[in-house]
Write a structure and sequence with these properties.
The complex is a heterodimer of chains A (1076) and B (368).
Chain A: E1 7-11, H1 23-37, E2 41-45, E3 61-63, H2 69-79, E4 83-85, H3 90-102, H4 105-108, E5 112-113, H5 118-125, H6 127-136, E6 144-147, H7 150-160, E7 164-168, E8 178-180, H8 183-196, E9 200-204, E10 210-218, E11 224-232, E12 245-247, H9 254-271, E13 275-283, E14 302-308, H10 313-322, H11 326-334, E15 361-367, E16 388-394, H12 397-408, H13 424-429, H14 435-444, H15 449-456, H16 460-478, H17 484-492, H18 497-504, H19 508-517, E17 523-526, E18 540-544, E19 559-563, H20 574-587, E20 593-598, E21 613-616, H21 621-631, E22 635-637, H22 643-646, H23 649-654, H24 664-671, H25 673-683, E23 690-693, H26 696-706, E24 710-714, E25 724-726, H27 729-739, E26 748-752, E27 758-767, E28 770-779, E29 792-794, H28 801-817, E30 822-831, E31 834-841, H29 848-855, H30 859-867, E32 882-888, E33 909-915, H31 918-929, E34 938-943, H32 946-961, E35 965-969, H33 970-978, E36 984-986, H34 996-1001, E37 1007-1011, H35 1018-1024, H36 1029-1039, E38 1044-1045, H37 1048-1060
Parallel strand pairs in A: 1-2, 1-4, 2-3, 4-5, 18-21, 19-20, 19-22, 20-21, 34-35, 34-37, 35-36, 37-38
Antiparallel strand pairs in A: 6-9, 7-8, 7-9, 10-11, 10-13, 11-12, 12-15, 13-14, 15-16, 17-18, 23-26, 24-25, 24-26, 27-28, 27-30, 28-29, 29-32, 30-31, 32-33
Chain B: E1 5-10, E2 15-20, E3 27-34, H1 40-44, E4 52-56, E5 60-61, E6 81-84, E7 86-87, H2 100-107, E8 111-113, H3 117-127, E9 130-136, H4 151-155, E10 161-163, E11 169-174, H5 179-186, E12 191-196, E13 210-213, H6 224-235, E14 240-243, H7 245-253, E15 258-274, E16 280-291, E17 298-304, E18 310-315, E19 320-323, H8 338-346
Helix pairs in contact in B: 6-7
The chains are: A alpha/beta (1076), B alpha/beta (368).
Domain ATP-grasp (chain A): 131-335, 677-868
Enzyme class (chain A): ligase
Protein name (chain A): Carbamoyl phosphate synthase arginine-specific large chain
Chain lengths: 1076, 368
């Protein structure tokens, strides 16, 4: 089939956020590759600069622009594509595409929507119409009704009866949905849902039904296959993104499996899907005769819950779970190909018209970071809250589950929970990230699987398996003697060396030694998508103790292992995957074979064609050691996957593995606060005054001497966890007591917090201490906002040349002293033209992809050259354009969380845009991370503190000049009026309406500026009671999707840019155009 | 029963230590593997597996126990032995009547847990299916090739049985028929006369409209009596549909040839493509032999998209057709249930009722 299409536009998904994460980098990248193979020109719009898909060597043209109709139309007008792909960029791309179609833009420019017809997608998005469609084709849906107002909702509720499930239509990741048991809960959730969506769907809540999903692909010739089915361990009611999921289903009989499969195919056919579709079912585990459908016979009582007519989180998981490249295939199908024409990329001897057979099972486990969000509610439900996920592969559920628990990063074993015991029942009954551990503890305490089933609805099958793990551990605790059989039993049940050691009082190194002596080593198995039926040379591997042969031979000294980032979480995201991928790809240039180790199914690094070998395995000492020992590789790279692999430096080096790049000893010198500080003193480099302490008295003494505010943090820092700025003694003591960060292993660091300072990032690659390439970028906000949450600009805009000069000199000194080879990053704080070093990371930083693209230099590739001593000095021209990175927050998804910038990171993703200057780049960047409407010329100002008011004065005047109608809270209004700036005073949030909340909720404002003071005594009250006025304003803004600025500098910069450019002034230029 | 060390031995000399969870009984047979992930009760009762030691590649088996007999594909466990990687003795399902281990013990069939079933699978796919034996302790038994015996005669019904309510009658020649063939026919309001494999159908004392030749175990050439009888049926221009072994028998009866595949098709994800339309269907398959030469007057109906082996033949003009796969599924996808409708349409026999779309087992069927 020859396609007549010559140029295709692909919409990406923008910044990573809860409910829409790295999986769309994977799917978009695959689609682009699928199109390029057909010699079709590809145009990509995606402001997510850290993605692989936006790399210059992938799509022909990349536009770092907001995924909004205005900009997409401009790109269409300029590029004139023949077709557009909307199903590879999540809900963002789909919604944008639907609006373009609605407005007639696609028709006007004659752009064909490829893949599934828009009408079908629209149908699946309108829950009521879709329910009636399904009924028409004989597919059961839960009894339900739709409402567009609260009164309508109440009426529907009355008809159906509580408990009910409420969902917002057109919302990603189940935002504002949940189970309600009464009128009050109904009102709360419906109000929230209607704030983001024109419609809510209310349906009968199906208590303890199983949740089963199918991933289906169909071509335009009506060939369709169900690539994978998956079963949620948690029953219905918990979003699939927040559920522990297994593939394939474990508790379904052939009849159930096939009937649901048949229903999925029927739905997909009825919709005319071309490409990928996800169907979610609720299945009654204990059907009664009365609940049977007339045709349903004696086994099946089920309903369709949801259909996603596009690539989704689940399809990425299915793709990794089976080895079937769903997104690639969907890309080909969109061009009109038949499934029978597309080669199976895994086996290379069969084609894509088949359903993978697995001879292993996978467990997906979400990664939550709820503790990172101040005030966020811990319980999970139908609205997704996790920020990432892991996938574990094993030949028993025990093996896979225990792997997943470790990959996820919070525990060593499901039995490793240290449960206090008091709240056990509560944590078993209320779903939270802790439930699995509570269940294990309950079983250990003698609760029966049946009892736990009654409370949780988790199928007894899973509970029996968990009980098995618990029992095996108990047996070992009673008799901790490690013979060959016992060791094998423990390993087959998924226990790590570390956990085994902790039971019998040994270190993981001792257990490892013993295990090797007993010849108990994991087998290396490959995933071939056909369970061994067809001989296939695949590079997709996992480890298991349920085997005694290896599917592959070691690569030997040609091999180099690259450690990936593990699950995405706050502080570690797609940017590290990007660096890992380019590192692996570049190894071949030096004649090496790359081995990627990673366990995150949302990534490009775990794609079948990114490395010579992929181990879908944990980034832990034990697993990495087993793999590199089996492969007997030349070396391994730990400095491109973020902090997690970097943390393994000491252990891996101790075991004698060849770590490429900076030595473990020097990594330790950079991370151990005392050694690091001594080194800076020796080099004559300034650092904020600091001290490490293990007692409160020492801390008080330091703070009194240096003066408040002080910054308190643990010695190994990741994403600013447990870090806090304290403005007085009370806060300091409170924080230390509350956060319990005093530990003898890692003493706590207290340092002088320098206020009103600038923060700069220095990123570089060095070889044997000599800088090969570097870039300096600048934070828009003052120091004190975590670098992951900061708005960052490159090149620097407000930095003296002499400062930059000093920074370069300092970096060169440090690099030389630590004999750095490979990537590194230094964070500087600058006050009065004096740079202080805050932190050195001897690894690729979060800014690596941003700088690589901004400088048009591939930093990971240069790093690989440096590892192999083949680097040379690069000189890059001063850029013609400016690039600004903005953080993306997901506060809207985390009810209760306070949307404010702090020293601890809270953003879930980022975007970056280019511009001819700082103002233009900033404007585009802010637009990419927020829904900003140029036409809505109203603003709410709430400026706390005298200083903030004064510093904002000029900006307020320019808003006035721009014709903005200004709403202001009490003292702000008084201040503005005194300065002759027109404004409308609004009451405080707690006062009677109309107040500040009302004008936000009624969407009367285009954006909100809420500046709060953190200094002085007033803030103490703010800390104690989060329901302050400011909190409620901020919360209302994010809940209503209104852009919110909480930083003075960013707000000023944004309004300045707004004064300079109208939307029409923003250039529509591709990435390449900024360099040619 | 647990922890008693036993072995799986293959003809090439390899041995696998195992744990036993079924009957403690030494058996010999042909070792084959199947890759379906669900449907072990159906597979184990499929008569096509008679004489075979079945290795299931999906590593967790026993998850949902064993349902009542009426749900199965024949009245007994047909495999000679079962090999799994991890046996699950704690099933969870509302249809479960007993554990898989208990069922196999009751049926006198051994169930072995051998961790590395993948290695066995790889060996079988590289060297072809192989003879093997399950040996308990020192008891040694000789290897045994079930293909030399007439397996069809062993598994076939011994006398005529009628299924379904009153209605037009069709004949199912039982070469080891799966009960779901009967159920799918009865679901269309037909009365099904299941006759022994060597029955001369043309001499049956009651009227009937069409003949279906069932699936069955082993080498089709061993079913010489059936081949002879099918010739007679076709000579009388009786509409005939062959399934699996029935495909091979129809081909042989009309002058085609068959051969043994290196490793058969035993899975639920086999892509069969209808040659004329190019449309693909996912099918369940369970066979070690295939049609090579297509008989005169017939054309290729389906082919396998993976290895391009024959998946069915159809007569150019007459209602004579057969498929290598299992349109009745069970276990496996139900995408080719339409084969039955197509056959009856070509034969000019409108079935009394449309098949019920949902459900697969024993619809409208009363097993007599």
């Amino acid at each position: 089939m020859k396609s007549k299409l010559k140029k295709i536009l692909i919409l990406g998904s923008g910044a990573l956020q809860i409910g829409q994460a790295g999986e769309f980098d994977y799917s978009g990248s695959q689609a682009i590759k699928a199109l390029q193979e057909e010699k079709i020109k590809t145009i990509l719009i995606n402001p997510n600069i850290a993605t692989f898909q936006t790399s210059p060597d992938l799509a022909d043209e990349v536009y770092f622009l907001p995924l909004q109709e205005y900009f997409v139309e401009k790109v269409i007008k300029k590029e004139r594509p023949d077709g557009i792909l909307l199903s590879f960029g999540g809900q963002t791309a789909l919604n944008c595409g639907l609006r373009l179609a609605e407005k007639g833009v696609l028709k006007k420019y004659n752009v064909k929507v490829l893949g599934s017809p828009l009408s079908s997608i629209l149908l699946t998005e309108d829950r009521e119409k879709f329910a009636s469609h399904l009924k028409k084709i004989g597919i059961p849906v839960p009894p339900s009704g739709a409402a567009t107002s609260l009164s309508e909702a109440k009426k529907v509720a009355k008809d159906l009866g509580f408990p009910l499930m409420v969902r917002a239509a057109f919302a990603l990741g189940g935002q504002h949905s949940g189970v309600v048991k009464n009128q009050k809960e109904l009102s709360e959730i419906v109000k929230k849902a209607l704030a983001v969506s024109p419609q809510v769907l209310i349906e009968k809540y199906l208590h303890h039904f199983k949740e089963i999903e199918y991933e289906v692909v169909r071509d335009q010739y009506n060939n369709s296959v169900a690539v994978c089915n998956m079963e949620n361990l948690d029953p219905l009611g918990i979003h699939t993104g927040d559920s522990i999921v297994v593939a394939p289903s474990q508790t379904l009989t052939n009849t159930e499996y096939q009937e649901l499969r048949k229903a999925s195919l029927k739905i997909v056919e009825s919709l005319g899907i071309i490409g990928e579709c996800n169907v979610q079912f609720a299945l009654n585990p204990k059907p009664k005769a009365s609940s049977l459908r007339p045709f349903g016979r004696d086994e099946l009582d089920y309903f369709v819950i949801e259909v996603n007519a596009r690539l989704s989180r689940s399809s990425a998981l299915a793709s990794k779970a089976t080895g079937y490249p769903l997104a690639y295939v969907a890309g080909k199908l969109a061009l009109g190909k038949s499934l029978l024409q597309i080669e199976n990329k895994i086996t290379r001897v069969t084609q894509s018209f088949f359903e993978p057979a697995l001879d292993y099972m996978v467990v997906k486990m979400p990664r939550w970071d709820l503790e990172k969000f101040k005030g966020a509610e811990e319980h999970i439900g139908s609205a997704m809250k996790s920020v990432g996920e892991v996938m574990a592969i094993g030949r028993s559920f025990e093996e896979a589950l225990q792997k997943a628990v470790r990959m996820q990063g919070s525990s060593e074993s499901i039995t490793d929970n240290g449960w206090p015991g008091v709240d056990l029942k509560k944590f078993i009954s209320i779903p939270t990230p802790k439930r699995l551990f509570a269940v294990a503890r309950g079983l250990a305490d003698g609760m029966s699987p049946e009892e736990i089933y009654k409370i949780t609805g988790i199928d007894p099958w899973f509970l029996y398996r968990i009980q098995n793990i618990v029992e095996i551990e108990k047996k070992f605790i009673r008799n901790p003697v490690l013979g060959k059989e016992k060791m094998l039993e423990m390993k087959q049940a998924g226990f790590s060396d570390k956990k085994i050691g902790s039971i019998c009082g040994k270190t993981e190194f001792q257990i490892r030694k013993l295990r090797k002596k007993l010849k108990i080593l994991p087998s290396v198995f490959s995933i071939d998508s056909l369970a061994g039926e067809v001989p296939a040379q695949t590079n997709y591997l996992y480890l298991t103790y349920h085997g005694h042969h290896h599917d592959v031979k070691p690569l030997g000294k040609k091999g180099v292992a690259v450690l990936g980032s593990g699950p995405y979480h706050i502080g570690s995201s797609v940017e590290f995957d990007w660096s890992s991928v380019y590192t692996a790809l570049h190894l071949s240039r030096h004649g090496f074979k790359s081995i990627i180790i990673n366990c995150n199914p949302e990534t490009v690094s775990t794609d079948y064609d990114m490395s010579d070998r992929l181990y879908f395995e944990n980034i832990s000492f034990e697993t990495v050691a087993d793999i590199v020992e089996f492969e007997s590789v030349y070396g391994l790279i730990i400095s491109v996957g973020g902090q997690r692999p970097n943390n393994l430096a000491q252990k891996l080096s101790r075991e004698g593995f060849n770590i490429l790049g900076t030595t473990a000893e020097n990594i330790h010198r950079a991370e151990d606060r005392n050694l690091f500080s001594a080194m800076l003193d020796k080099l004559g480099v300034l650092q904020p005054e600091w001290q490490s302490f293990t007692s409160m008295a020492e801390a008080d003494k330091f703070a009194e001497k240096e003066g408040y505010p002080v910054l308190v943090r643990p010695s190994y820092v990741l994403s600013g966890s447990a870090m806090s700025v304290c403005y007085n003694k009370e806060q300091l003591e409170n924080f230390i007591t509350r956060a319990a960060v005093l530990s003898p292993e890692y003493p706590v660091i207290i340092s002088k917090y320098i206020e009103n300072a600038k923060e700069l990032e220095f990123d570089a690659v060095a070889q044997a201490g000599e800088l090969l390439v570097f870039g300096i970028s600048e934070h828009v906000e003052n120091a004190g906002v975590h670098s992951g949450d900061a708005t960052i600009v490159y090149p620097t805009q407000r930095v003296y040349a002499s400062t930059e000069f000093q920074i370069r000199e300092i970096a060169a000194k440090i690099s030389k002293e630590l004999s750095v080879t490979g990537p590194f990053n230094i964070q500087f704080l600058v006050k009065n033209n004096q740079p202080f070093v805050i932190e050195v990371n001897l690894r690729a930083s979060r800014t690596f992809p941003l700088l690589s693209k901004a400088m048009d230099a591939n930093l990971p590739e240069i790093a690989v050259d440096s590892f192999l001593r083949a680097g040379r000095k690069y000189k890059f021209p001063y850029p013609k354009g400016v690039v600004v990175k903005s953080p993306q927050f997901s506060f809207a998804r985390l009810s209760g969380a306070d949307p404010i910038l702090r020293v601890e990171m809270a953003s879930t993703g980022e975007v970056a845009c280019f511009g001819r200057n700082y103002d233009e780049a900033l404007l585009k960047s802010v637009l990419s991370a927020n829904r900003f409407d140029f036409k809505k010329k109203t603003v709410l100002l709430s400026l706390g503190g005298v200083v903030n008011k004064a510093k904002f004065l000029e900006t307020a005047k320019s808003l006035d000049d721009l014709g903005y109608k200004i709403f202001a809270t009490d003292t702000t209004a008084i201040f503005l009026k005194r300065e002759n700036i027109d404004c409308i005073i609004v009451r405080k949030a707690y006062q009677e309406s109309p107040n500040a909340l009302n004008i936000i909720e009624s969407k009367q404002v285009g954006f909100v500026v809420n500046l709060s003071t953190m200094d002085g005594k007033g803030s103490e009250n703010a800390r104690r009671s989060i329901v302050t006025d400011g909190f409620r304003i901020r919360r209302a803004a994010v809940d209503n999707q209104i852009p919110l600025f909480t930083d003075l500098h960013l707000a000023r910069a944004f309004i300045k840019a707004l004064a300079r450019y109208k939307i029409e002034d923003l250039e529509i230029k591709s990435y390449k155009e900024y360099f040619n | 029963m647990k922890d008693k060390k036993i072995k799986l031995m293959l003809k090439d000399g390899s041995e696998y230590e195992a744990l036993s969870f079924g009957a403690d009984k030494s058996v010999a047979g042909e070792v084959v593997f199947a890759t379906g992930m669900a449907g072990y009760p159906e597979a184990l009762t499929d008569p096509s597996f008679a004489g075979q030691i079945l290795v299931l590649t999906y590593p967790l088996i026993g998850n949902y126990g064993v349902p009542a007999e009426a749900e199965l594909e024949s009245k007994k466990v047909q495999v000679a032995g079962l090999i799994v990687a991890n046996y699950i003795d704690t099933p969870s399902h509302h249809t479960s009547k007993m554990t898989l281990g208990a069922w196999l013990r009751q049926s006198g069939v051994p169930l072995l847990e051998v961790k590395d079933t993948r290695e066995i699978t790889q060996k079988l796919r590289e060297q072809g299916v192989m003879l093997g034996k399950i040996v308990f302790g020192r008891e040694n038994i000789p290897f045994y090739n079930p293909n030399r015996a007439n397996l069809v005669a062993q598994v076939s019904a011994k006398k005529i049985q009628m299924y379904g309510t009153a209605g037009p009658t069709v004949i199912l020649i039982d070469c080891g028929a799966k009960l779901n063939i009967v159920r799918r026919l009865a679901a269309r309001g037909l009365r099904v006369a299941v006759v022994p494999w060597d029955t001369d159908v043309t001499r049956l004392p009651f009227p009937f409209l069409a003949v279906i030749i069932s699936n069955g175990p082993g080498d089709p050439k061993k079913a010489a009596a059936t081949i002879r009888n099918v010739k007679k049926i076709i000579a009388k221009k009786i509409p005939t549909l062959g399934i699996c072994l029935g495909n091979q028998i129809l081909a042989l009866a009309q002058g085609g040839t068959t051969y043994k595949l290196k490793f058969g098709h035993r899975s639920q994800n086999q892509p069969a493509v209808e040659s004329k339309s190019g449309r693909g269907f996912l099918t369940t398959q369970n066979h070690g032999f295939a049609v090579k030469k297509i008989p005169k007057g017939f054309r290729e109906w389906f082919y396998n998209a993976n290895d391009h082996t024959n998946e069915g033949i159809i007569h150019e003009t007459l209602p004579l057709m057969s498929v290598q796969f299992h349109p009745e599924s069970s276990p496996g996808p139900m995408d080719t249930d339409w084969i039955f409708d197509y056959f009856f349409k070509c034969a000019g026999i409108p079935p009394p009722s449309l098949p019920l779309h949902r459900g697969r087992s024993k619809e409208g069927v009363k097993i007599l």
